[in-house]
Amino acid sequence: MGVIRAFLALIARDLRLAGRVGGSGALSLVFFLMIVALVPFALGPDLNLLSRIGPSILWLAAVLATLIGLDRLFQADEEDGSLDLMTAAPVPLELVVLGKVTAHWLTTGLPLALAAPLFGLLVALDGTAMGATSLTLLAGTPALSFIGAVGAALTASIRRGGLILAVLVLPLMIPTLIFGVSAAQAASGGTVPFLVPLAVLGALTLIAAVVGTLAAAAALRWPE
User: Fold this and answer.
1) Please, which of 120, 194, 199, 201 could form a disulfide with 125 given CB 3.0 to 4.6 Å?
2) What pTM was computed for the model?
3) What percent of the chain has pLDDT over 70?
4) Pair 36, 54: CB distance under 8 Å
5) Long-range contacts made by residues 81-84, C-beta under 8 angstroms, separation at least 24?
């Protein structure tokens, strides 16, 4: 019970901090909206083309928006000494990583998934495609947060390591992006049943949760 209370307290702490400083969630939503709004201007007024590649646009925007504030996931705690206290606490460091990534997803990935149906109107998606894209984002954005946590842990002691972080984690996010887009397009009449890529996407999230948590915790211990 003490471990669970510590886990929940860590999530609540990060959520309060995110709200106090304005948080990366609002910035991610604004960035998400900017990408989704600008792409139709670049492609032109072809609604058939927009509706066909709409899920790809939303997923690509979600991947890029997830990077907003990701470099501060552990860096802020590294700078003020909180990370040293968390490392020395009796709670496993893996649980600390899990709590911080969960808080990051609640303030970034979850709002993106919930806003996807609204933003889908900008790329001419129908109701089925909007719902499918939102569901795939709910299933896949946790994987993006866990993958990003590994890069955030590796660059925690590097000032302005956002560019390095993006270079490290973007290639690792490609499988999630591929299956997320495949699942969303399958719901709109693709040749592959919708549940097949969705199940693979869920499996990728579970793998990322395990591997990402262990790898991020190991990266935070490494300077010691």
Assistant:
1) 120
2) 0.90
3) 94
4) no
5) 83/156, 83/220
